[in-house]
From TrEMBL:
It comes from the Bacteria. InterPro entries: MbnP-like_dom. This is Copper-binding protein MbnP-like domain-containing protein. Residues 31-226 form the Copper-binding protein MbnP-like domain.
Amino acid sequence: MQRKLLVLIFSLTTLLSCNTDNDDNVFQAIITFNFNHNWDGESVTNADFDDIKYTNAHGEQLSIKKLRYLISNITFHKPDGETFVLNGYNLVDVTNDSNLSFAPTTTVPVGDYSKVSFTFGFNNDDNYNGNYTDLNTALWNVPAMMGGGYHFMQLEGKFIDNTATQTSGYAYHVIGAVDNSGATPVFESTFIEVDLGPITITNNATFEIDMNIAEWFKNPNTWDLSALNTFLMANFNAQMMMFQNGQNAFSLNTVNQ
């Protein structure tokens, strides 16, 4: 009888410690990020692609053919300055309906956080042509003459040009900005730290993240697709405008836990 009691106590202890930090006995939460997409509130999935059904702030009608983007460096910030960074990065591919959900292998302690953030793209320390074999396979690289490293986003489709009689293609590609107009290239950081605000983690948590695609074309720069549609990777000013417009593209919808 005593042996059975000891086995039961051991089993309960093992069960309760499955998601617990052994050092300080703090429950460790598994975090999942789900990425959802809309056009000013209208849901967007790959079922909507290749259909000219959206109107940007400049008045141009357009379609979406490709949308994929990189997020990295998910970070939980404690009020005392301590941070917990979740390992890995995620190439969200809406076109192929893949990687719309990201569950890093690392966990975070339950408790209060002053903010949760992630990086759109790679920060300067991570954005180099290194051992990201999956990104290399996905042809995510940026040519060295344009600064090297990796894309942050590829958004492509067609739009009705200013003649209102025919469609033209656009390729809204976001990378690190490089100004090659002078004798020495000037590099400008264009990755975006997305601040999701404060959160209290009480259990395993799923973050529902929204991207409003329309924001890339309207705020603060009203995007004129008839003038800025292709060859944007080498356009320093266009990249800086994209950086500015992307500041409000992402938002936190809900956290389920």
